[in-house]
Amino acid sequence: MKYIVILSLVIVSIVVLLTSLTSAGSNVGFSYNPSKKFHLQVPDIKLSDEQKESLYQGKPICRLLPGRSGFKSGRMEVVLPFDPVTTFQIVSDIDHFHLVDPSYPSSGSTFRTRKSFMPYVFDGAHCIENGHEYLYQLLVMPLVDPRKYSLTRFHDMTEFPWESAWEASPNLECSGKGNPEMAELAKDAVHITINTGSWRIGPLSAEMRKTEEDKMRSYVIYFVDTNPGGDLGKLAPIVNEATKTAMPKLVANIKFHGPSWRAHLKKYHNAQEVAQYDAWLEAYKQSMGVQQ
């Protein structure tokens, strides 16, 4: 039973999402600013030379750090084998995270399972209310009550690293736009009200690049600080191990999309969004001096 409770923290931590493709705006820049100020302060972690080489080889580094309310926050770094424009769009495609795909690991309760992009996400919706954009999600996990929350999201694409940050709303905006078939699960779901985090996505720094091909890879930092409810204080070592296991699974799903992202756009998005992706990708290549 304790492992099931642990999953509630881990999955809530990795299920926080980003801006939609259509809301990213036109203020997009491709210069790189290592001293850029961000919406959310993410703890810095000093990496050893061995860890830096591990990152370069594409292996994520996941850690638990001091968080709020006696719970731990999660931090992950990873280098992905495709450009930051593609990476940002993959993790921003909130309208399709609920789609079932046989390549994803199955997740869900003991009576319902799904193979969705974000583990344990059974339903989601985003909307704009009172000038703010919100993301609602419903999580279904084994042997525990479902979880639900709405997030206020912020994004900055003016220069790299691009950032998408979020914080939980005290209300449940967008929940009425969810799938009616999930209403029974959502009715008694626990409302999570503590959840802040950020994705930061950019190119590899000049110091980290070893080949011309490295210009078409992305450096990603993920951070989340959340309290899903429950007394997990005594289970910190197990939570740490569970987090290290769960976050790489999300990375694997992102890597699954990378090689065929444009095909996904053509299937599920309109021509304007496909053209936007192509334009951003071309601008990124020019900014990096990528040979055509």
Keyword list:
292 residues, alpha+beta, nine-stranded mixed sheet, two-stranded antiparallel ribbon, 7 helices, 11 strands, disordered N terminus
Oligomer: single chain
- The DSSP helix count reads 7
Could you report the average pLDDT, rounded to the nearest whole number? 83
Query: What is the succession of H and E elements?
Result: HHEEHEEEEEEHEEEHHH
Low-pLDDT stretches are 1-25
Strand content range: 25-35%
The CATH topology label is Alpha-D-Glucose-1,6-Bisphosphate, Chain A, domain 4
End-to-end CA span: 54 Å
What's the domain count? 1
Major beta sheet summary:
9 strands, mixed
Summarize, please.
The protein is an alpha+beta fold. The protein has seven helices and eleven strands. It starts with a helix and ends with a helix.
Describe, in plain words, how this protein is organized in 3D.
Helices cover 28% and strands 26% of the residues. By secondary structure, the protein is α+β, with helices and mostly antiparallel strands. It has a single domain, classed as START domain (Alpha-D-Glucose-1,6-Bisphosphate, Chain A, domain 4, 2-Layer Sandwich). Strands 1, 2, 5, 6, 7, 8, 9, 10 and 11 form a 9-stranded mixed beta sheet that branches. It has a two-stranded antiparallel sheet with strand order 3-4. A hairpin with a 5-residue loop joins strand 7 and strand 8. Helix 1 packs across helix 5 (236-257). The longest helix is centred in the C-terminal third of the chain and has 22 residues, at 236-257. It is globular.
